[in-house]
Amino acid sequence: MKLNKNRIVSLFLILFGIGIIYLSTQIKSLFSLSPRDVGPSFFPIAASIGLVVCAIGKFLTEGKKNEHFLDSDGWLRVIMMFVVLGLYLVAMIYLGYIISTLAAAPAMVLVMREERKIHPISLGLFSVGITAVLFLVFQYVIQVSLPVGILFK
């Protein structure tokens, strides 16, 4: 296993994430928390866990690189993903979280699928599932209300 610059950066990010997790456990709340509240350290810990997992993945897959970063189809997918995300943000303002996510999730999957065949039922179930899971996490776990949309207020 060769230690190149990307693996060194990955190791740094792993240590950084672990450090943030430790420091986040030291955060004191300015007010008394209800038993159902996750507290002020939840988001930094969750984000740091995501950082550590991604850095581990990057470290482990670093030696398995393609010669080219992206070909023309890859760049087209990147541009299309930015377009879909931009439309998703605009749609969320007017249509709210649920409708815009039900439309954007399959669009993102279709943009990124490359040559793989995706069954429409699987795509629909994925869209409904990811929309529901994210809604439940935001509404009930971290208690952040999601946009309803200007058209539905």
From TrEMBL:
<dbReference type="Pfam" id="PF07331">
    <property type="entry name" value="TctB"/>
</dbReference>
<keyword id="KW-1133">Transmembrane helix</keyword>
<keyword id="KW-0472">Membrane</keyword>
<feature type="transmembrane region" description="Helical">
    <location>
        <begin position="6"/>
        <end position="25"/>
    </location>
</feature>
<protein>
    <recommendedName>
        <fullName>DUF1468 domain-containing protein</fullName>
    </recommendedName>
</protein>
<feature type="transmembrane region" description="Helical">
    <location>
        <begin position="123"/>
        <end position="142"/>
    </location>
</feature>
<dbReference type="InterPro" id="IPR009936">
    <property type="entry name" value="DUF1468"/>
</dbReference>
<keyword id="KW-0812">Transmembrane</keyword>
<feature type="domain" description="DUF1468">
    <location>
        <begin position="8"/>
        <end position="147"/>
    </location>
</feature>
<feature type="transmembrane region" description="Helical">
    <location>
        <begin position="79"/>
        <end position="111"/>
    </location>
</feature>
